[in-house]
Design brief:
307 residues, mainly alpha, Helix Hairpins, 2 domains, 6 helices, rod-shaped
């Protein structure tokens, strides 16, 4: 109930509106007073209408009021009452229509919100299921990642061990090549020395052929002995050269086999690294400098091998 509004204030406002030739309504009375609850004004306005009829009857019985004026006031009151009733009926009908429309709209909104709530519940259930699947997938990927790390560490160890073996083989090949070079130099030196000796012997033989004709047989025997010594020395050096070359070829084959194993391990390491998930691919790949250095050494060694 509005505070500060009395029946007398409502009666005075309604009388003023009625005196202005208008039908007193709740909105007009409230506008005239500037305050007040619509329910309170409606109740007080009904009381004013009841009092107005009594006032008009009292007015019609006053001796100083002409009968025509009293009849006019009574007719005016009847018209005002009819108009007020029609206005109220129309207003109530409009308000009932508005309330029905609002009720229908609220029902539709309720159905809409219920549908949205069901959809949201389904979405939440799906999201929870997806979260559970994602957590399970994460655990599985973590296990696979740990296995991949262990496999990678094992492959790295194998690669390092094979790389060390390749380095040792490369050093051994270099040492054998150095020995082969020394043997070739010694062979050439001995061959040149024998050729110089042979030429000297032949020159001396030609110079002294006339003087030492009688010793030709002896010199011939010496010459044959020198030839035999030369052939023996050349044969021994050639045998040693062939043996060294066969050993170098065997070592080169062993190096090629070791290099193939290293390449196979690097390929297996690359395949294992490719099996790691996308989020782990940003980690730096295993260095291949050692394997490439071994390949360069093997290639360099193969180019220096005599044909």
């Amino acid at each position: 109930m509005a505070r500060g509004i009395t029946q007398e204030q409502v009666n005075a406002a309604a009388d003023a509106i009625l005196a202005a030739g208008e039908n007193p309504t709740v909105e007009k009375v409230r506008a005239e007073l500037g305050t007040g609850s619509p329910n309170t004004i409606t109740r007080m306005l009904d009381a004013w209408r009841g009092q107005l009829g009594e006032r008009l009857r009292q007015l019609s019985t006053l001796p100083e009021v002409p009968s025509s004026v009293g009849q006019a006031m009574i007719e005016l009151w009847r018209l005002a009452s009819d108009h007020a009733e029609r206005s109220l009926d129309s207003r109530f009908a409009n308000e009932r229509g508005v309330l029905a429309a609002a009720r229908n709209q609220l029902a539709q909104e309720r159905e809409t919100w219920e549908a949205k709530l069901q959809t949201a519940e389904i979405t939440v259930a799906q999201a929870q299921t997806a979260r559970d699947l994602a957590e399970h997938a994460c655990r599985t990927l973590d296990g696979q990642l740990q296995d991949s790390h262990a496999l990678r560490a094992d492959l790295v160890q194998q690669r390092d061990r094979l790389q060390a073996q390749c380095d040792q083989q490369a050093k051994l090949i270099q040492a054998l090549r150095a020995q082969l070079d020394d043997s070739q130099v010694a062979l050439r030196t001995e061959r040149e020395r024998q050729e110089v000796h042979i030429r000297a012997v032949e020159d001396r033989a030609h110079q002294e052929v006339d003087r030492a004709r009688q010793d030709a047989k002896q010199w011939q025997q010496r010459h044959e002995a020198a030839e035999r010594v030369h052939r023996d020395v050349v044969t021994a050096i050639q045998t040693r050269y062939d043996s060294t070359r066969d050993e170098v070829r065997h070592l080169e084959q062993e190096v090629a086999r070791q290099t193939g194993q290293v390449n196979a391990l690097e390929k297996a390491l690359s395949e294992a690294y490719a099996a790691i998930p996308a989020k782990q691919k940003n980690s730096p790949p295993a260095p291949k400098a050692g394997a490439k250095r071994g390949q360069r050494k093997t290639k360099s060694a193969s180019t220096r091998t005599p044909k």
